[in-house]
Every structure is written in C-alpha cells, then in structure tokens.
Amino acid sequence: MIVLLFSSTVVVNAAEDQYEFKNAAQAQTFKELTLELRCPKCQNQNIADSDAVVAKDLRDKVLSLVHEGNSKQEIIDYMIDRYGYFVHYQPPVTPATIILWVLPVIIVVLGFGFIVFRQKKAAKKQQWSAQEEKQLEKLIAQYQRKERHQ
Description:
The protein has 150 residues and is mainly α. The protein has six helices and no strands. The chain has helices at residues 2-15, 24-36, 53-67, 72-83, 95-125, 130-149.
C-alpha cells in the first residue's frame, strides 16, 4: 500500500513542468507572463493553466525569451506579433477596441431615444379634439337613453 502511494506521487511530480532561472526576477517575469498570456486553443485560459500543446510551446518560448534577457514588454510584443491581440488579456486601446466598447452604448442610447420619441408621438395622437369630445358625449347620452328604455 505504501509503495503504491509513493509511486503515484512520483508520477504526479514528474508530470509537472519544472523551469530553472538565473535569478528570482526572471522567475517572477516568467510567472507574470504565463498568467497574462492567453492560450490560443483554450480561448479563456492562460498558458500557465492550460494543458494544450500550443500552451506548452508558448511557455517554452516565453522561457527562452526570458533566458535571452528580453523585457516583459518585449516578450508581450513578440507574442502579439505572432498571435495577435487575442493572446494578451490586456489588449491596447485602439480605434477598433474603442468601437467595440462605445458602439453598444450608442445603440442602447439610440434605442432608448427611439422608444421615448415613439411614446411622445403616441401620446400626442391620444389627445381628444373638442369635436371628438362632443361626439363621445353624444354617444354616451344615446347609450344611456337606450339603457333607461329597456
């Protein structure tokens, strides 16, 4: 039983990636980058947590770039050049991203304005003219006379 338990822990430890760094700053940079970079295959999972082959390749590339002495921003730029803005969880503000954030707000405001405009227009249509008021009173009086006679 103990041998089985010991052998299962060895297998678990062997499956985990172990990376070596020259200093703590490189290790910290690697950790931050793997948490900031998104796996292209997994969509909403960072490369640190993903088991996909492409995530492993990205981790290895980040590791080699960190060992080469590249800065964090240089590595992010390298990854964006190869995989697009999607690979980074914090894409820069560009005209395209501004449109993505502003357009839904504009649509909601225009929709709300349209509804208010339609309500005001409908309210104006519902107002009675003096002639319609007299005709209504006449019809009510006729109906009341008919009710009395029955």
